[in-house]
Design goal:
The structure is a single chain. The protein is mostly helical and 196 residues long. The chain has a domain of 114 residues: Alpha Horseshoe (Serine Threonine Protein Phosphatase 5, Tetratricopeptide repeat). The protein is 74% helix and 0% strand. Helix 1 runs antiparallel to helix 2, helix 3 runs antiparallel to helix 4 and helix 4 packs antiparallel against helix 5. The protein is elongated, with a radius of gyration of 33 Å.
Length: 196
């Protein structure tokens, strides 16, 4: 091999090495830049969501989700806003979009579960109010509603404004064992000599 061919081969090797090393760092820089841009955009939209413009925030989250189809965060934020608006079916849809992208997203799991329970509670309330509903369906609905209340508590199922005051347990309403009934106590304390 002549010196000229050797020099040409060395130059070609240096150019190829430079191109390859450039290929390795360019995608890395691009990915970091995209992640920073996504985080900045999320922070800006989060600020809008904290203001009164919830619909504007939802629209911007949707745009960000369309530009970043693999990201779950915009969908999880939409689910939270919809839940706060008591739009439970829309909250569930957004939560499911988030979970499709990130099955471990706790925010989306929580919104999906509680929004589903609130929809179920509404449906059960509607069934209970329907006087034409009788038989097994009515009994099943009442039993399910009771189980949900016992398991989760009424405040989880109903928003705070709709939740009834907590009921006293039967054990709290009964007289303590060994205590005198109220009527007997009143007679003894009345000062009537016949009651002594």
């Amino acid at each position: 091999m002549s010196k000229r061919h050797f020099a040409s081969a060395a130059i070609a090797l240096a150019v190829a090495t430079g191109l390859l090393s450039g290929c390795e760092t360019a995608p890395t820089r691009l990915a970091v830049g995209q992640a920073e841009s996504f985080a900045r955009e999320m922070a800006e939209i989060d600020a809008v969501a904290k203001s009164a413009d919830k619909d504007g925030a939802i629209h911007r989250y949707q745009q960000l989700a369309a530009a970043n189809p693999g990201k779950a965060e915009p969908w999880a934020r939409i689910a939270q806003i919809r839940f706060g608006q008591s739009a439970y079916s829309l909250a569930i849809q957004a939560a499911e979009e988030a979970l499709a992208r990130d099955p471990s997203n706790r925010e989306a799991k929580s919104v999906s579960a509680v929004a589903g329970l609130r929809l179920a509670a509404r449906s059960l309330e509607s069934l209970r109010a329907d006087s034409s509903l009788t038989g097994d369906a009515h009994a099943d609905a009442q039993q399910l509603a009771g189980q949900l209340r016992e398991t989760l508590g009424t405040p989880v199922l109903l928003p705070a404004a709709q939740a009834p005051p907590p009921k006293k347990k039967k054990s709290e309403r009964r007289a303590r064992p060994g205590a005198a009934p109220a009527a007997q106590t009143r007679i003894r304390d009345s000062g009537d000599p016949a009651s002594r």
